[in-house]
Amino acid sequence: MIRFILADLRRLWAGAAVVILLVALATALGVTVTLQERALRLGSARAADKFDLVIGAAGSETQLVLSSVFLQPAPLPLMPGEVLAKLSKDSRVAWTAPVGFGDSFAGYPLVGTTRALISSTVSGFAEGRMFEQEGEAVLGAAVKLPVGAEIKPMHGTAATGGETHAGIVYHVAGKLRPTGTPWDRAILVPIQAVWHVHGLGHEHGHEEEEHHEGDAPEVTPAAAATDEHGHSPLEAAQEHDHENEVAAAEEHDEDHDDHAIDGDAPIVEDFSADTPGLPAVLVKPKTIADAYKLRQEYRSGNTLAVFPGEVLTGLYATLGDAKLVLSAVAAGSQGLVAAALVLVTVTHIGQRRRQIGALRAFGAPRLSVFAIVWLELFSLVALGIGLGFLAGLVAAGVIAGLFTAESGIVLPVEFTYEDLQLALVLLGVSAVLSAVPAILAYRQSPATALRA
Fold first, then answer.
1. Is the predicted pLDDT of residue 201 greater than 80, yes or no?
2. What gap in Å lies between CA 429 and CA 395, rounded to an integer?
3. Which of 60, 307, 309, 386 falls between 20 and 30 A from 344, CA-CA?
4. Which residues contact 139 (CB under 8 A, 6 or more apart)?
């Protein structure tokens, strides 16, 4: 029987290859959707696992988490720096770390933060050390720069037309071990450096002479005299001062974003009430009870506190709706392929009536004929399902790799017990469908088949 089936498949290899290909493609679509959706859930949950609580200015919860945890570029409103000072002294907090962003280098985001966040969320350094001075930086594991490299930050990104900050240079002090999160693609610098680059955290004013409304300058006899143009020395001095102010203003407009940092300055991570505003603070509460108390306390007024897990749950609901639609499309395509295969096979059985009649005439039992037809079709469909699962795994892996390269989130693409159940269901349905043409062959009379 097996030899007969193999010989028949070799004779009809083109049709057999088409059947296998159709089944494989229909199966691969559904498998890819399932694996990718599951990997995205697991990967994003693991990426947010180390961040228990995020506090920012009142606004969108989703955007706050996407920007502060997943480092997706988006403008966030700033909350007062006194919030950070208060949290850093709160007995319910194990550690707290501000995050500041907006700059980039070579496509990698620059994130201002503290040494507490790095030491608490990363297992250690692959090479180098922690930043110790204002002009030093630490690289995520996926940043393709060597230790000792120079980084000249750009405001925004090249894609959005950002400009490089003139005179601002960071030196890479170390590179972290992989975390499987978007922070692997980040360049981490001291938060005070980010503030100073953007003109925050220290005074940039110049000593100016104060003039109060209603005060008049003292007029001396020399000041009352006039020159050849009819201007007094006082008027000439005022005109000169005005020209200097205009020149200074023009120079400031040309370089309004760039402020100096002291590369050798020590890092100060003691925050006070006059700390500059910042977009978000990452908080590690000491207990679960403390986490809920802090969340409730900072969800009023001008601040917003969220658990990243809760926000992700809402995103997963949207993701689940998308998966449902794609799964329906995949199921529809599989149904169409199954119907087409049954139709083609039934037609093929009609064309092979003489062959089946000859088998019966030479003494082949009805069950043998049934088994030959059923096993031939079922083998083709089962092979297509197996190749479809393999193709779906490869496709999901490729998509996950592209996503990881873009976002830094590692997506675990792997089969689970649910996938085994799906495979068994598909094989069961295939076994039933393969029985349709086999029953037709079983019911054929040898005499009728030979006269056809």
1. no
2. 24
3. 386
4. 145, 147, 172, 174, 175, 176, 187, 188
Would you state the torsion angle of the CA atoms of residues 191, 197, 198, 202, taken in this order, to the nearest 10 degrees? 80
Q: What is the CA radius of gyration of the chain?
A: 36
- 113 strand-pairing partners: 190
Closest among 77, 102, 204, 99 to 153, alpha carbons compared: 102
Reported confidence tier of residue 137, pLDDT bands at 50, 70, 90: very high
For residues 261 and 252, give the distance between their C-alpha atoms in angstroms, rounded to a whole number: 17
Interstrand relation of 280-285 and 93-105 (parallel, antiparallel or unpaired): antiparallel
pTM recorded for the entire structure = 0.72
pLDDT tens-digit readout, 308-360: 988 998 888 877 777 777 778 777 777 777 777 777 666 656 556 555 555 55
- Dihedral sign of CA atoms 260, 262, 263, 267 in order: negative
In the numeric block, the tokens 């003691």 are attached to 270
Beta bridge partners of 172: 137
β partners of residue 281: 55, 98
Partners of residue 55 on adjacent β-strands = 281, 305
Query: Which residue in this structure is represented by tokens 């199921």?
Result: 331
Q: How far apart are CA 439 and CA 345, in angstroms?
A: 12
Query: Looking at the predicted structure, is the pLDDT value of residue 259 above 70?
Result: no
Give the number of other Cβ atoms within 10 Å of residue 34's Cβ.
21
Q: Which residue's structure tokens are 């608490």?
A: 120
State the amino acid at position 302 in one-letter form: N
**pLDDT digit string (tens) for 58-98?**
888 999 999 999 988 888 889 998 999 999 999 999 999 99
